[in-house]
Amino acid sequence: MNSFGNIFRLTSFGESHGEAIGGVIDGCPPLINADTDFIQRELDRRKPGQSDLTTSRNETDRIELLSGVFEGKTTGAPIGFIVRNTDAHSSDYDNLRNTYRPSHADFTYQQKYGIRDHRGGGRSSARETVARIVGGAFAKLVMQQETSMEIKAWTSQAGHIVLKEHYSKLNMNQIETNPVRCPDPETAEQMEALIRTAKAEGDTVGGVITCVCTGVPRGLGEPVFNKLHAALGAAMLSINAAKGFDCGMGFDGASKRGSQMNDIFCRKDREDITVRTNHSGGIQGGISNGEDIVFRVAFKPVATLLQKQQTVDINGEETLLTIKGRHDACVLPRAVPIVEAMAAMTLVDFFLLAKTWSKDIF
Amino acid sequence: MNSFGNIFRLTSFGESHGEAIGGVIDGCPPLINADTDFIQRELDRRKPGQSDLTTSRNETDRIELLSGVFEGKTTGAPIGFIVRNTDAHSSDYDNLRNTYRPSHADFTYQQKYGIRDHRGGGRSSARETVARIVGGAFAKLVMQQETSMEIKAWTSQAGHIVLKEHYSKLNMNQIETNPVRCPDPETAEQMEALIRTAKAEGDTVGGVITCVCTGVPRGLGEPVFNKLHAALGAAMLSINAAKGFDCGMGFDGASKRGSQMNDIFCRKDREDITVRTNHSGGIQGGISNGEDIVFRVAFKPVATLLQKQQTVDINGEETLLTIKGRHDACVLPRAVPIVEAMAAMTLVDFFLLAKTWSKDIF
Amino acid sequence: MNSFGNIFRLTSFGESHGEAIGGVIDGCPPLINADTDFIQRELDRRKPGQSDLTTSRNETDRIELLSGVFEGKTTGAPIGFIVRNTDAHSSDYDNLRNTYRPSHADFTYQQKYGIRDHRGGGRSSARETVARIVGGAFAKLVMQQETSMEIKAWTSQAGHIVLKEHYSKLNMNQIETNPVRCPDPETAEQMEALIRTAKAEGDTVGGVITCVCTGVPRGLGEPVFNKLHAALGAAMLSINAAKGFDCGMGFDGASKRGSQMNDIFCRKDREDITVRTNHSGGIQGGISNGEDIVFRVAFKPVATLLQKQQTVDINGEETLLTIKGRHDACVLPRAVPIVEAMAAMTLVDFFLLAKTWSKDIF
Amino acid sequence: MNSFGNIFRLTSFGESHGEAIGGVIDGCPPLINADTDFIQRELDRRKPGQSDLTTSRNETDRIELLSGVFEGKTTGAPIGFIVRNTDAHSSDYDNLRNTYRPSHADFTYQQKYGIRDHRGGGRSSARETVARIVGGAFAKLVMQQETSMEIKAWTSQAGHIVLKEHYSKLNMNQIETNPVRCPDPETAEQMEALIRTAKAEGDTVGGVITCVCTGVPRGLGEPVFNKLHAALGAAMLSINAAKGFDCGMGFDGASKRGSQMNDIFCRKDREDITVRTNHSGGIQGGISNGEDIVFRVAFKPVATLLQKQQTVDINGEETLLTIKGRHDACVLPRAVPIVEAMAAMTLVDFFLLAKTWSKDIF
Q: Total domain count for chain A?
């Protein structure tokens, strides 16, 4: 299914080389200022061709808002929108009509549906995330207007280059100043160099994005199956090329003792409680505890290589594949706003859900 | 919300020290043999008191099937069941009525609901997973009767002890032969020793469970938001103490190049296609490709320590907490069947969902 | 699927002659007084054997609350409950194992599932509505504690006997004073006589239940697909033997002109607006307008007759059917509390849903 | 929420005078021929300006398919589409910005959302049903290609003019030959005259649409809450101005005895079973029994009158309202294809859902 969320719900449609990418945002509260400049800026952060690290596909990614907004404000009605595809070079993909790219979705789509739109990867292309950026932008507008929540993501690993500092030591204002979206300029340069080298070799690079959500009210998350970090995990793992997720100390915490990991409660001030550490990453028992929510998303390297690769065609014959088309050597820089968008939609959804009964809490 | 799944759907209820843990399985196909011996064996794998590594709470965990089965077969009607709580020592928890255990759900439940059943952790207790085992057992029965799918999970890390062999080199028949559920006897012994040491110190140990699903048909998974590994991730992260999930090469793949990671397609035989490697972990583009599905789940150490800990009470006063009650020093051994249960429910759910349109594929 | 509602959600299970009827109420707000006496009184209104008009099956219908309530208050955790079946005479149904009752669900269950529990009608029995009464009772408790809403239903037609007075002229306190649950004593007597006659002939009687919901806040209902009357309609048509639903003037309004039907707005007082008439039945554009919600539910006569009937067996052989077992000659009296329960769950569900964004409205 | 269906799912967006009406169809099976001529013909049946009985708004209602179709066939990806609004006269609605039309959704939208797009009724306009027609057209294409199901609806009552013949005696080929869509030419003429008279008086007329679905396989419908007629009821009651629904004998059956109403099973031929009558309307116990599904939908007269009406403005001041704009005097003729569309989506959704487990039944 192509819908995401319970109360605040995005339904997405569109293929890479079809008419348009689009979506419907249902359940957005009324009377939110639909700041189209902000939405467009968010789209621009994801846009192809931002730097020479990314695909050179040239899309302006202009949003057309079709419904749900009246005189600049949301009305509670569903927000329909489209972003036209204007620079598709479909003939570059002719040889993929009958051949499967290794580790791409070509094969599994064909198996599942018995048909696929091979042009530009069709529905499996990350171009679909345009719709998520728009959904996320509206969620961020709700957050800004109705809550204290803020979200910040960045590239914390590209290939073997890892940013090791704790996020409290980083200058988040640096994230958007370099093409890899890493808040440490020195590490950013190393990442950039690595990606450039891989690109020159027709190769690709994986990595990790870290995300921190601040100002999250206590009480978001459903305690059993819809734990807040389970929902965030599903959101992140739904992003193209994402293969791993952890929260707080995550995989690193697996080797620790309870006595090292437990977050000791203490007084914040006369009226409130806080914790000495935040190894839990802001979520305990599946419910936000008011501390920063911290999580990581692992991305595999892009599957589409500009090197020759062995593969098979749809008849099962082995063949040598040469890719044309325009592709990213590393998705991380452009995935940063997508991680933020998915986080924003998830948090707003749980925020609205929590309002169903917690009249005395917020 | 306390329901899991779309077509095959478990709704769970019950608190640790309430009358019973129970659930409803909706959407189970009819005419499945409801093998109660098998279901009970699965419950026994999760049961407390299996070894001296686990809590000494003494529950027989007898299932009462209340509906949905007629003359030994499922009828398509919802399967209601309960497992009585018979060995709750609620007075052990009296001091937790007004005090929050560090890193436990006590605080967040109180914040979210303004009330909580503090006895035995109430709804936040892992005792709730009894319902998941039953749901998973029915899913496994569907798998056995209707599909070629099989699921095997094991403890691959406890604390700093890591089982490094690739799973193809392991003897899965060894898993159930030791109390930590690790297929390598030597590593199992080290894990056991580690947990025993931690327990003696009133401390706890985290770890990692690895799971492999074989015989999964191609085409399971929804391509955008409900990618198969996103659904598995949400399922796993909903388990108590789970803080991380990855699939295939996962976090390790983040440091790799595309040319190292891509799974090259080749001929399997005259009629079929396979891959030379399985770095994707059986899922590409969110859809199963017919190879083994492989994933890991990271667990933090249990939060409830038998050491004295600093904390606060519900008035925000700092206090020193001493825990009574019976607790696991490491959840991994008992979490192995829970991981399997969640995987089984997820795969059966997507299997049934895939049948809605893929008449020519299976 | 066996779940009802979005936020306030009942999942029901159980067969007529199985171990128990039960359910899980998910999404009930915390801190609601779980008044078990009230819940039991609601169950008693539905109970068999209340009068000689109803089936003589003798069930005490004692509720066992299994979870979700702590020290008399709901906790936000799912409320699991069962009601044991204690007076099933399954051998009365032996001849139905292989024979289909005309107009009953025997045939369609067998076709759909390839198996059925024939004892007492199995899952298709109206005994399942025990779970709805419990769900409705909790919904009524939410309504009493958190809202101004009230619900009142009654038998307004039995066979050809129709109660013609407008509900504003009726004394609702009379409803529970007679076995047919009709607020007009004279009409009640005629209905009673009619049912008694039919029963003596081994025949059954249909009818209509009318329901009025007062104090419903403005703004409940989703404007397009989940219109409030569409949801109420689905709720009512899910009751056994219900075959029709209308709201406000309903079918009678189809023959009217707009100029006769429109509800003219006027001032209520200095600060508020009301309408001169309520032909809309309290819902306009799918959303409650603050006036009384009024709807009707049409029930066909019970299909199980104590007369001999022609039918076929599962081999398609024609045969003459003689029914044993204990059956209602008219479901209306016992369906009155079921209509109320379904209305209560629907209204509370939409009330909670409306709270997601309407902070300024209520 | 603005989505309809479980497996085959339409999400709709758009306002009467916004940029476009549109939608997303999710869960449509792959490899369905997306016959755009057929889709356009269905849109034309709903289009304004078909006859002098309908609104004179002049829309070509051209569909733009944006995704989900490749080389003429559906791909399993979501089908996004829009229909531009090209003939909106928004200034005709200026006086409705601050005034509530009696019995219209103006008041309730304002109460629910605190804002509304008053132009052309905004989201509450029946222009939204454009999206339903497209969803229904795709559902009909699935039905034609994959099933034996067919759907036929017609105007069976307009004001006090009632078509009394049983549908088996009617010539369905006549439905599209007259502007009211009534299969009996004589009755059609009376209806037409009635609507014309009302229109001349600035008044409006209600009525009833009857719908018959043939070739429906046995086993569609979920037995408890999602009974097939409950889902059809919710679908129909979600149509603008619909206020009542019944199935089979419906409200008329309420006055009957069981012995009159029961549908006696008999042999159809050597291998199959049928019924002597179809008072159940093709559904028993909530599940289709293979007979014709028959239901009625009651519509109130259009609320927007071209007569002067008393009402209040948003400040609660009483005022006299004069309507401009272009409006239908009777919605029935244009609602016929909408009823069919909603029925088609419902049946296809349940058909796909039934495939999840009934491999041996169809």
A: 1
